[in-house]
Amino acid sequence: MTNDNSGDVRLSGMSKTYGSFTAVHPLDLTVPQGSFFALLGASGCGKTTTLRMIAGLEEPTSGNVSLGDQDVTNLPPYKRPVNTVFQSYALFPHLDIFENVAFGLRRRGIKSVKKQVGEMLDLVQLGEQARKKPHQLSGGQQQRVAVARALINHPKVLLLDEPLGALDLKLRRQMQLELKRIQTEVGITFIHVTHDQEEAMTMADTVAVMNAGRVEQLGSPADLYENPQTTFVANFLGTSNLIEAEVDTKSGDEIVLRAGGGKLSLPAARCSAPTTTGGKVLVGVRPEKISLTHAEDAGGIPEDRNRITGKIADSSFIGVSTQYVIDSPVCPEFEVYAQNIDRDARLVPGAEVVLHWSPAHTFGLDATQDIDAGVETVGEEASA
Amino acid sequence: MTTVTEAPPPLAPTPQKKPPRRRGRLTPYWLLLPGILWLLLFFALPMVYQASTSVQTGSLEEGYKVTWHFATYWDAISEYWPQFLRSVLYAGTATALCLLLGYPLAYLIAFRAGRWRNLILILVIAPFFTSFLIRTLAWKTILADGGPVVGALNSLHLLDVTSWLGLTAGDRVLATPLAVVCGLTYNFLPFMILPLYTSLERIDGRLHEAANDLYAKPFTTFRKVTFPLSMPGVVSGTLLTFIPASGDYVNADLLGSTDTRMVGNVIQGQFLRVLDYPTAAALSFILMAAILIIVTLYIRKSGTEDLV
């Protein structure tokens, strides 16, 4: 598979505008053959438009789409070796499951489809349902038919447009694993569009976070989570605590920052912002990296850790962990997730605490950005 | 699962709930009543009356009596079968023409018209603001001998072709089968377009995209996805056109001649001029039965009950 690049998807300078609205800004992106790639973003960020341009259902305003070495920009969808799993599945209501799955094969003039369709239906565990109509199946079954109908054509690339959006949580989890299994089995390039960050992180090898028609950051799920480059990524993927700080000193690969009254240390390699002494930087840390110690025990905290003092404003026990909201002078709502291993009974709302974490878990972002970018969108999606 | 064997505790509230439920159960019948009365009064009763008329014998002077004279039916068929055949042929041709003309227009309105959609729909219905009779008379002028339409057809030598097919006679269009079929097509076209539009408009556009994505060229997409999904519209449109067209007599009367008489003209003549009520009633029933049989066969064949 390493020397076959016929399933590479290359977008160069591809953009889409509708009148004065730019849905996708000129985009350069390469998705290597055989990878499971996720386009992640809130609704309206341009991820579906990007997918539709790869499928040929939407014409780019500028730029090119290539599959392997072939430029497909001007090919109609029925000539592209690409298949799509639509958000609403778009199964043909007048055809039974068998004919839905056989549709692509028949259009390419393949006569004996019986064996292939049978095998494909077995792969998605729907062999028994072959003669049913789509409306007789459950949502999860319809979703599997949609996947089978696309995969049977052995496309170079499979495009998935929020295919799990209509399923309930439990089924969604199950289908995530199922899709991942199928992808590993068939080795086809998958491009998966989703607004669910957890779904993107569980399934994809590489995630591109999109915001307002641009790719904000691209990388492996762990890389995006640990080293966000923008406030949007920091807030959209999981939760981040962001503190406004001022550069105090720079020495080698360590930057010392002033925030409130205290000092924080940040490895220079983990700072994506330009740092000049006296300049502003946003310092971030993930809630689960932070340890919480009652103020009375503050003496026991090792010297080399970043620390902030505050007061517990709220705590919620959720089984595996307890989530605290800390009111601190540098940040009014500091979030801390503590594993429930040895619970300190003194950590209740109102208690004075010290938050501390390893400087290696600190990241620095450009302070000119909106500190809340990506926050509201997460809330909207969760309530939707 | 032990709870099943226990006596259900909330026994007391059930009697309280009963009265509103009983009243609710009768509501549908109350709602049905006006419709049923209407049907009885204006459909069932006249039908019974006509049925009895069709088996009466007698004359205007002596009065008619029910003598169960079923021979009237056989006499009617053997005498007027050409008119029956003509009715089915003309109505069938007009229906086919309506489908050919109406489908592209309905397709255009449903998928391509954009903001013009409502305007075009209004234009489709606009002819109804004029009386059926006036519109048909207008066609008399349009197809008049020596008029621009006939002149154009003549200079293109199309009338030679239609004459050869037996649709027109000489260099006339008026008073020929072609004129009657034209009138029927024109008058019933909206009844074809509207149901077609409704069923095309309901088709999810993503199905076209899905077909396209699955290697179907635009025409294949139409053949394999759009057309089958519009079958309910095709069936209801053809029925709404064919049924009234086969009973119509105005078009044959105004645009045709004695050679283009349809069964509707015969019934009208028997009722209003010859005053042979039994034959007229028998002809009406035969026409109704013929249409019922044709429609049943047609619906069976098109298999619409299988569609969503």
Automatic annotation (TrEMBL), chain B:
User: Which residues fall in a compositionally biased region of kind Pro residues?
Assistant: 7-17
Keyword terms, alphabetized: Cell membrane, Membrane, Transmembrane, Transmembrane helix, Transport
The record's listing under Pfam families reads:
BPD_transp_1 (PF00528)
Topology in membrane = Multi-pass membrane protein
> Hey, what's the signal peptide range on this chain?
none
- Source domain of life is Bacteria
Classification via InterPro entries: MetI-like, MetI-like_sf
* Residues of the ABC transmembrane type-1 domain: 84-298
Localization recorded for this chain is: Cell membrane
Q: Where are the transmembrane segments?
A: 29-49, 88-111, 118-138, 174-197, 225-245, 280-299
Query: SUPFAM superfamilies under this entry?
Result: MetI-like
Q: CDD domains in the record, alphabetically?
A: TM_PBP2
Q: Where is this region: Disordered?
A: 1-22
Family stated for the protein in its record: Belongs to the binding-protein-dependent transport system permease family. CysTW subfamily.
Specify the protein name. Answer: ABC transporter permease
- Native organism: Streptomyces ureilyticus
